[in-house]
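Allow me, if you will, to draw on your knowledge of protein folds for a short while. I have a record of one protein: its chain in single-letter code and its fold written as discrete structure tokens. The full record is reproduced below for your convenience:
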Amino acid sequence: MFALATTAIAWVIFVVTLIGWIVYYFANRNSARNELGSEIELAANRTPYYDDEILEGKRLERVQFIGLLFLVSITIGLPLYWVFEPSRMAGATTDQHDKFVNYGKALFATTAEGGFNCAGCHGASGGGGQAAYTITDAKTREIKAVNWNAPAVNSVFYRYDESEVRFILVYGRPFSPMSPWGLAGGGPMNDQQIQTLIEYLKSLQITRVGCAPNETDPKTCPTGILPDTEQKRISDAAGLAAQKLVDAGRYATTGAAMGEALFNLNINSGAYSCARCHTTGWSWGDPGVPGQGAFGWNLTGGSTAAHFPVQQDQINFIKAGSENGKKYGLQGQGSGRMPGFGNLLTDEQIKSIVEYTRSL
């Protein structure tokens, strides 16, 4: 609103100034004599000019009045410009951001709608879905078609920062339906398109608690967490899964079963699940040995405890995720592909997962 008002004021000042100069030009263009071809007749020191009565009379007053009008316009216009310029710039930034979001939305749309079909796998609102994929059985070499759980992207900035999301978009996820989309990775999108897609993904994020509306990056708002409604949905789903494990005789109480239930949590197409990366076959509904490794490394055989001798170090790692090139645990170096769950799960839930993985 301020940006539009400032633009209107600026145009009014410009038009008034332009009209003033035009009037001044036509009022004075005939004051000079036409060229007669004789320097003697036109020489300034030979040509009669206005006497003092005319110069110091109405003409002088008229010129002074015009000058005063210009001075008033500058005196008023410059402070107004200074006052409204920040709002105008903010409005222009917001307008540009909205355009980026709309461009990104068009790219995210299904193929039928002219997009790159992100919505076809991750859902129209980014809440997760399924993607057609073919896998090869490691033992029989049989090729079969499966429906791969494509994770929700409406919480992707709870798990990754912007640079990590960009890397995934550009280079894809090897051995999954997520193919490279950036030119550098062999995909069809240029850097500008990737950026507009990221801006659209930001607009899809579940509203964070404890952050400003425009703060979706955990690094700009590290204290932001999921709203109570989403946290309750996770807790309810984990509680039901834990109860099934108790009913199956695997555990004595739901509290004891909570770590495994959370590890294998199937909500938002596994966006909050550890198993989708650490258990072969989980993503297409045919899980193998829990935690034996897939996209993520093998957690069984005591490897977790060996890699993180101190349990709290593993908890901190799961909360923050891996950073590209940064060391973690014993001789571990992050690639940026391990998401952080500190903004998705509670400390108690993460502790349950850690205790479960250390028992595998």
User: Anything to note?
Assistant: The longest strand covers residues 129-136.
